[in-house]
Amino acid sequence: MSSPVLLALSGSLRRSSYNSAILATLGEAVADKASLAIFPLNDVPLYDQDADTDTPPEAVAALRAAIGAADGIVIASPEYNHGMSGVLKNALDWASRPHGRATLTGKPVFTLTSSPGAVGGARAHAQLNETLASIGARVVLRPQAVVGAVHEKIADGRLTDQRTLDFLVAGIDDLRADIVRPTAADREAS
Predict the structure, then answer these.
(1) What angle do CA 26, 30, 36 make, to 5 degrees?
(2) How far apart are CA 175 and CA 179, in angstroms?
(3) Is this structure's pTM higher than 0.85?
């Protein structure tokens, strides 16, 4: 398999974000089999249907283009109040448009969440996957990727827990397999 281009979205804007650290470490760990680049969500404005025109805000156009250019997406979110972060939900709302032509629709996506709590953001994970299903993204089917006690697994901006990293690398392997797996539309066209 060729080396796919993966786009990563971190649901946290915090400078010392655990999710961004996980994504950066994961990108380094899979560099021999995929290129993974993190798209910063800092400049994506709050969703406003009035601004969602043929010329959306610059950061939104860049997000949509980056999703369209990627072979697959990796999304990491913290859990806030039993759900995904507002920053991530907002980005997904922009990425779900224009209806019927969104670059995220049909795109393979590997999701993970993290939390200092023991369940690693499992409720945010469920909410994230539900949102992606409503967009029509192809969420990779595999054991849930949740990172509990994340604050104990990050040091100096890197994921240091090898067992967790190995599990997430296996998730990237599943994403890579899903990228090359034909969809129903591909099978009908052939």
Answers:
(1) 70
(2) 6
(3) yes
Task: Give me the count of residues in the chain.
Answer: 190
The tokens for 180 are 């090359």
Q: What is the mean pLDDT of each run of 10 residues along the chain (190 residues)?
A: 91 96 98 97 97 96 98 97 96 93 95 94 96 96 94 96 98 96 62
3-state secondary structure 143-178: CCCEECCHHHCEECCEECCHHHHHHHHHHHHHHHHH
Distance CA 129, CA 90 (A): 15
Position 185 scores a pLDDT of: 59
